[in-house]
Amino acid sequence: MTRSCGSICLPTVQSRTAIDTLSRAVLLVLALVLTAPASAAGCSALKDDDERLACYDAAAALQTLEETTVFTERRQGERSVWNNRFSILPHRRAYLLPLSYTPEPGKAALDLPPGDSLQRAEVKFQYSFKVPVASGLLSENDQLFVAFTQLSLWQAYNQDLSSPFRETMYEPELIWTLPVSRELLGGSLNYFSVGINHQSNGRGGDYSRSWNRITVETAWATERWAVGLRAWERIKESKDEDDNPDIEDYLGHGELAVGYKWDDFRFTAALRNNLQRSDNRTSMEFGLSWPFNQKLSAYAQFYNGYGETLLDYDQRVRRIGIGIILADWF
Question: 234: closest CA among 216, 218, 219, 253?
Answer without folding.
Answer: 253
